[in-house]
């Protein structure tokens, strides 16, 4: 095997900032809200247009909530099972949804109303969403948070410039 010698610039990579992660979480939540409401409209009213709706408040609500779930994940990941963590996240989601809904309602700005649901509380939360919130918390932890925490920022990279990629095998640079 021929060894190839080339200069390797070790990039100064850092984890994403808290604000960058919050932003990604906000966009994720906003998108999921639009997709959920579109799917709901289809299932309930057979509307093939899939009109998904949300409020600009969803950016703050989801970004902050998922950022807090990230902190919970980091604290709980080695202490309890995924099932228990998702129960905790779901409980948090209900607390957060009720709190933000209650505050927004004071300004006539709450974008949701669950009054038509059988198991609602003040129209701000409903138990009918417990399973979807549980499943969403699993997806958020396993896909969104874990992958977002793996992202790195290279402060020396030039926008649009190709990056040097090194194939690694067992911790060694592959030379083929």
From TrEMBL:
<feature type="transmembrane region" description="Helical">
    <location>
        <begin position="52"/>
        <end position="70"/>
    </location>
</feature>
<dbReference type="GO" id="GO:0016020">
    <property type="term" value="C:membrane"/>
</dbReference>
<keyword id="KW-0472">Membrane</keyword>
<keyword id="KW-1133">Transmembrane helix</keyword>
<dbReference type="Pfam" id="PF06541">
    <property type="entry name" value="ABC_trans_CmpB"/>
</dbReference>
<keyword id="KW-0812">Transmembrane</keyword>
<feature type="transmembrane region" description="Helical">
    <location>
        <begin position="124"/>
        <end position="145"/>
    </location>
</feature>
<comment type="similarity">
    <text>Belongs to the TMEM229 family.</text>
</comment>
<dbReference type="InterPro" id="IPR010540">
    <property type="entry name" value="CmpB_TMEM229"/>
</dbReference>
<protein>
    <submittedName>
        <fullName>Transmembrane protein 229B</fullName>
    </submittedName>
</protein>
<feature type="transmembrane region" description="Helical">
    <location>
        <begin position="22"/>
        <end position="40"/>
    </location>
</feature>
<feature type="transmembrane region" description="Helical">
    <location>
        <begin position="82"/>
        <end position="104"/>
    </location>
</feature>
């Amino acid at each position: 095997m021929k060894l190839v010698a080339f200069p390797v610039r070790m990039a100064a990579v850092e984890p994403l900032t808290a604000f960058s992660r919050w932003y990604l979480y906000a966009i994720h939540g906003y998108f999921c809200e639009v997709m959920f409401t579109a799917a709901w409209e289809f299932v309930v009213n057979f509307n093939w247009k899939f009109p998904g709706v949300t409020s600009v408040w969803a950016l703050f609500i989801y970004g902050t909530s998922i950022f807090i779930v990230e902190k919970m994940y980091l604290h709980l990941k080695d202490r309890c099972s995924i099932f228990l963590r998702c129960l905790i996240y779901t409980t948090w989601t209900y607390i957060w949804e009720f709190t933000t809904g209650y505050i927004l309602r004071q300004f006539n700005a709450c974008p949701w109303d669950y009054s038509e649901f059988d198991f609602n509380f003040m129209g701000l939360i409903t138990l009918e969403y417990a399973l979807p919130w549980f499943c969403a918390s699993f997806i958020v932890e396993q896909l969104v948070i874990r992958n977002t925490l793996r992202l790195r920022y290279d402060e020396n990279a030039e926008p649009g410039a190709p990056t040097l990629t090194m194939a690694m095998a067992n911790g060694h640079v592959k030379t083929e």
